[in-house]
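If you are new to this repository, start here. Below is one unmodified record pulled from the training split, so you can see the exact layout before writing a loader.
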Amino acid sequence: MNWLFVSLISSAVTSIVGISDKTVIYRYSRTPLTLPLLIGMSQTTVGLIALLVVGVPGEATFIMSFSAFSSGVFFGFGGIISQRVLFTQEVSRTIPVTQSAPIFAAVLALLILGESISPLQWSGIIIAVLGSALISLRMDSGIHSIFLHKSFYFLMLSAFLFGAANVIGKLALEELPVMYTHGLRMLALGLVFLTFAFRSDAWHDVKRLFSAKSPALLFVVTNEFITAQVGLITLLWALSLGPASLVSAVVGTRALFTVLYSMVIANIWPGALGEETSTGSRLSKLVSTLLIVAGIAAVAI
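And here is the target side for that same chain:
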């Protein structure tokens, strides 16, 4: 199957993950680490089950297995940072900035994998950076100047880690099967989340959700055991078929899906995600996201 088509499937599916995460954070969580702890528990479980089912393939070497595990570690650290910002920021401003990961993936793929990048693709990188910066600009009421929100820098670090995870994942996939690589990545991601999120406040909040049989658990189970898995497996599938720089660029269209999904939900259920719904806010998000997507499209050519 064509890597472009698989990448678009991954983009459309994984964009739902951010929306669902924000719903849990905004409506049910009492601490910034509640959802990361639930993610850590679920993804560690997924990783262990996947490895038990597929086993260790004969072609698996220690170096390639370590690369797959390292890819999950980078992905986990990037996820921890973005989840922390998502606790206080709008999903349609948070997720699109982290989708500047193709910028870093392209550079790392050039250095590590020897992939070539054309002048047009470099132009796309610059456009994507501008779009990422613009989407984090805010206008506070009573203040007539625009400033760059401090969360932007943390999100850019998260984007770098996501880009590195894709490049290292591509390196592992040159020798390893998709599902074995996925199992190692999820195990590593889960352990990173557990390490950072297993705190008393978060643990008590998780127990509260289970005791109350909170609807949040349905969101988490659906998101972490179904939606996220489909999105992440198709991402690895696409990486196994195409160049890391181009696959990462196409998956970056997740930004557009996220903004469109969140705007539709905000219109149907006002206040459901804590999103700004003013005309100016919508226009800013849409223009910024289109810039990112335009840059990513140029990177993919």
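Two things worth knowing about this chain: Residues 216-241 form the longest helix (26 residues). The chain has a mean pLDDT of 83.
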